[in-house]
Amino acid sequence: MPLDLDATDAAPHPAWLPDAALAAAGGRRLALDLTSVDAGRHGVLDRAVLGTLATELERAVAAHGGAVVAATDSPDLTLRLTGLAGTTPADATSVRGDSAGEADRAAAGPHDGFTVVRADGRVTVTAATPTSLLHGWFEVVRQGEAAFTGADGVAHRAPAAALRMLDHWDNVDVHPVMGQVERGYAGGSIFYDAGVVRADLSRVTTYARLLAAVGIDRVSINNVNVHAREARLLTDDLPEVARIAAALRPYGVRIHLSVSFAAPMTLGGLATSDPLDEDVRAWWRDAADRVWEAIPDFGGFVVKADSEGQPGPFAYGRDHADGANVLAEAVAPHGGLVHWRAFVYNHTQDWRDRSTDRARAAFDHFAPLDGRFADNVVVQVKHGPLDFQTREAVSPVLAAMPRTRLALELQVTQEYTGQQRHACYLGPWWGELLGFRPWDGAAAEGATTVADVVTGHGPDAAPAVVAAGGGGIAAVSNVGDDRFWTGHPFAQANLYAFGRLTWDPTLDATALLDEWVSLTFPGASPALRDALHGILDGSWRTYERYTAPLGVGFMVRPGHHYGPDVDGYEYTPWGTYHFADRDGIGVDRTRATGTGYTGQYPAPWRDVYESPDTCPDELLLFFHHVPYTHVLHSGVSVVQHVYDTHFAGVEQVEAMVARWEEVAAEVPTDVADRVRERLAEQLRSAVEWRDQVNTYFLRKSGIPDAHGRTIY
Amino acid sequence: MPLDLDATDAAPHPAWLPDAALAAAGGRRLALDLTSVDAGRHGVLDRAVLGTLATELERAVAAHGGAVVAATDSPDLTLRLTGLAGTTPADATSVRGDSAGEADRAAAGPHDGFTVVRADGRVTVTAATPTSLLHGWFEVVRQGEAAFTGADGVAHRAPAAALRMLDHWDNVDVHPVMGQVERGYAGGSIFYDAGVVRADLSRVTTYARLLAAVGIDRVSINNVNVHAREARLLTDDLPEVARIAAALRPYGVRIHLSVSFAAPMTLGGLATSDPLDEDVRAWWRDAADRVWEAIPDFGGFVVKADSEGQPGPFAYGRDHADGANVLAEAVAPHGGLVHWRAFVYNHTQDWRDRSTDRARAAFDHFAPLDGRFADNVVVQVKHGPLDFQTREAVSPVLAAMPRTRLALELQVTQEYTGQQRHACYLGPWWGELLGFRPWDGAAAEGATTVADVVTGHGPDAAPAVVAAGGGGIAAVSNVGDDRFWTGHPFAQANLYAFGRLTWDPTLDATALLDEWVSLTFPGASPALRDALHGILDGSWRTYERYTAPLGVGFMVRPGHHYGPDVDGYEYTPWGTYHFADRDGIGVDRTRATGTGYTGQYPAPWRDVYESPDTCPDELLLFFHHVPYTHVLHSGVSVVQHVYDTHFAGVEQVEAMVARWEEVAAEVPTDVADRVRERLAEQLRSAVEWRDQVNTYFLRKSGIPDAHGRTIY
């Protein structure tokens, strides 16, 4: 019998906040205690969130029979705002897995986080800001009955990343080829109708609530490729942008805007955008002043400059520090930030030239600039040196700029991971990335991780970087106006896991999926829970199996990036090659004989990656050109690995399909049908990947499958 | 010093009708003699053309100082309309190269053609219809001074093909991906602005004049892929279609419409489009009645059915004869035609299945229907079994349907031949196709040709086919609203040559180019003339050299079809494969071991193509899968041929560029610059083709170039 998910055809799917998820708290006596608050110290954001807190409690008890009572009336749960002077209780037990550096973290974000005290069967959540208290409320919601029935104790929770952000690549206009949301696979934009900001932004507020429940508090609302229409959001359309800000504000979510580096010319009518030009500096200051006047809690600007055709400082012989700092200067008086993307490379490469290596580009451009960026600039670095592939080495930029606030950029939207037609749970991949130890071997315990770097705890981090808590974690959103928000209902789990990992990068992906199942499918049977784990836990590795092998990347159809095309990018200007010939495949990025990219890593990785003997199998073809007969650490040859993984990948998708049929009747029909439809397409596509990739390598290598399976 | 081509920035380029081309006639005394005409017998078309004849003479003498005089006043040139009872003089000398069957041709088109009598230094052109007389006028224009200074004599000229048609793949709307003109490379449509028929159709009349000057008298005005907007041309928009007809009519050009087989449902609201349904038959009759009421000289309908997603009779279990005949029945009372395309194949093939062969499809679908099509149906057959490739075998359908009016369909628009960025003069290719002898070896003299088949003179042609003069010749137009009409100024020569070949398929392509040069560049210096021949005469074979080798076809970027992508279609549903592996390449279409396609040809070709020993080199990979080491008749191996031709092709384009620079100063700057820009792109693209194709085959075969040239 289908569960009631409170979803109707008219309303968007509730995702991980169906009313049933509020049952434990909503059936109890709840209180909001603001007695120690000096309301005069609150800004527009805090005031909005205070109203939301009251509404949340009322909504919960209305649905589940509890009551909102006075704080003095023995409530089961008290949400207490301590005011900005509040401090972390000295006896708090950290609940983060990694307790080292806790003091630093508290220092970096003294107003973030909350404390949960459970004593005598009563729970009190205290926080210094309304938004942190709201996050505490959703922590209680997430725990359900366990929040009230566990042992007494005190726990302090604070987000690992001070900056936790989602980037929307939404356009106001609908592009005839790219659609409205660039690399969007969930319908149109929730912010914009075709050409204008939506009249009804209620869904944006619902979105903010989902984000607050997983701890995200910043959203950039337009595409980093800033087209003419979208550029005007910065100026003419500020009243409309303010409406979007107002729709996000009740849940403590601040907005950022992507801006064009050429704006002083295209919007301001200046003759230049040279960052060292006084008129340009003045234009940016004026622009920033106007933005903050309209939106007092505005977050800042996101910039894609000198990248894939976007304008940037190179046109004036300036570097990216010059470029970023002129914007930083403009937003600094308002406490604003500049997120400056490190995704800078030559997209008009010559495939004949094997010495040019796109993987080198971000490091070559940015590492020399370390220390030159203003304190309110965040350099936002894609997780790998290429472009959100299913498997890539970690970007060496993340280990190269201790005097710069670095943000890790992930991609929740599944551009290269199945485009929300394929079930591909990315939690495990992000866990690997965040846990990667740039200065230590894979097995080192307690070593500094990527997560440490982006939260201000990398080695040799400059004091300003430490003080600011680093650059945080950002990701491209996967949400659109689709009824299920994300096209594939299971893609909701990626958004959920991303948010939770920004609070605690050490969280286990399987445990996060379990949280998501509990909230999204309240009362899920063990069979349903097992099936969802069976389908999703290993789905990223399954996707990897049937697509591009051994870290070589791409092999997708150019343009839309869906489905196989082994040679699709092989002779293009994009710098994404595999160099397969009749003898072997892979990109030689060694110092000894290749592009020298391995030299961008600190030890031990510069050496681990340098030799095929030590390079991990899953990245072998990213670092080395090897014969098809090269034997992997797994014991099979490269070409046999290709065959084996591609057959296995399809078999695993077949198992996913079968698994879903066993439990689909336990969820509402619309969810069951949407998942069924997507799984059917995933199977069709996986078969196509398997057969094209296997055929390509059989034709090229001439080496038959050792097990005699059908290759065409 | 640039010649004066009468072109200004405001006006379209005059193409082959600059005023200077009228100098010889325009400087003389001209008369229009209508004394023997019974005007009462003239329809709307004839009356319009009569007016045009007078205007043409006035225009010529106004520009060049001659005079229009009475026929009794000793004119140098008399254009005499003989009335419909006029007959060919018994002593006329045929000027067609192929005199056999002349009587039949006269019988097939008794009202077409004209007679030129030159006696005592005076010239008289007589014809039975105003349009034929107009064609005679342009014959005189084309000959220039030679028309008046040659020896006395009588010549009768009649078009080989009774039906000579250009198909425009124009959409009323502008498609976000395909643009307005599908496979158009010369800007937007001359007929439509975005969404509507153009208010100013004067350019359409100018176009009709260009067509009349090369003998084309039918134009289909909308894309064979009939989208929703364009479907309405048949009904709601008839007044607008009538405006287009009126704009073409002064030059004797009739219009046809592409219609959707589903129109009875989509436009008529019926529940079916079943061709055997009485309501459907009645709907088509009513639709035709309304069309002819609005446009009395309307030509007929063009239909792409059951092809690449277009609706058709298969949906009702009917065949294509059933489908075509229901439309034929509707248009017959008006003397209308149905052009029914034979381009029917499965575009959702499985590349794994080597037994399915797209090349077989048209024959398999249509040959069994021979004799079933109504007399006013023309089955329009693409020249090859695939899709307008640079090199293909001739379609066996052309030799398989003696009881059907077959039209040859060519593609003037350069979809697969450089998209009007590359100079590629197609006259030689069309000459080969029209002169192909389906029932005889290549060397047979006087044997029946493809041109004979489509003009009603094939072996065993049914009486009705003979009487109608076969199905004629049609082609996809290359014209748009570009200032030069065709993007590349040299692409005008393709349109010119196509028109002239419909009158006489035996004309030599080099001679046709010479005609075009004389008209387009009046007074061209020998150096300019030589350069244009040097650039264009061999340009089709040059294009072939640097693109897909040995008839294998495609290897273009999917979608837009421009530029190389060797594996671009290799694993797609389109049925266009090359099956290259590390050992060899090509498609086995033999009866012995392949798809059996060779069996669709009559002898001797069924046997010539069956064996690699006798198969012509240029089609080897279309018919056979061979090792890279297979030695061609030319004496080199397949892979060495690939290398040699690709290096040679680029060298030839380099020579074209150099050749143009020698003479560019002799033409107007705008022509010189446009050609220069296009040649630069052609060279860039040819280098890309060379390097990608050579690299692909070196990587796959491992066989180095015998001459040690650079392959990447």
From TrEMBL, chains A, B:
This is Alpha-glucuronidase. Coiled coil: none annotated. One of its GO terms (cellular component) is extracellular region. Residues 156-485 form the Glycosyl hydrolase family 67 catalytic domain. Residues 88-108 are annotated as: Disordered. PANTHER family: ALPHA-GLUCURONIDASE A. GO terms for biological process: xylan catabolic process. Residues 486-709 form the Glycosyl hydrolase family 67 C-terminal domain. One of its GO terms (molecular function) is alpha-glucuronidase activity. Pfam families: Glyco_hydro_67C, Glyco_hydro_67M. It comes from Isoptericola jiangsuensis.
